[in-house]
């Protein structure tokens, strides 16, 4: 398959270095309110933990950190070896 992508349209205006992006990521999650917010990769914004907990089975409501993403919703298996996290 010979696919020509519109590279000019896909180019990001972001000029930050990888180090700057990583430092920003760490700063954001260092101050993240995990008690009240869940990370939603799929929605691109935090969700209220109360709303998330309502959709969980009873045995999953004790987890301390919630990360939601489309890959994990589809049974991708990324959560293996992460007993303190819950992917829904």
From TrEMBL:
One of its GO terms (molecular function) is metal ion binding. SUPFAM superfamilies: PAP/OAS1 substrate-binding domain (SSF81631). Signal peptide: none annotated. InterPro entries: PAP_assoc. Keywords: Magnesium, Metal-binding. Residues 17-51 form the PAP-associated domain. This is Poly(A) RNA polymerase gld 2 protein. It comes from Echinococcus granulosus.
């Amino acid at each position: 398959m010979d696919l020509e992508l519109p590279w000019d349209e896909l180019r990001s205006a972001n000029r930050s270095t990888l180090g700057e992006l990583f430092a920003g990521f760490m700063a954001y999650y260092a101050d993240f309110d995990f008690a009240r917010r869940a990370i939603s990769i799929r929605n691109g914004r935090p969700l209220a933990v109360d709303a998330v907990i309502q959709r969980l089975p009873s045995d999953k409501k004790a987890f301390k950190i919630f990360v939601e993403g489309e890959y994990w919703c589809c049974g991708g298996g990324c959560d293996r070896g992460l007993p303190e996290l819950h992917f829904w």
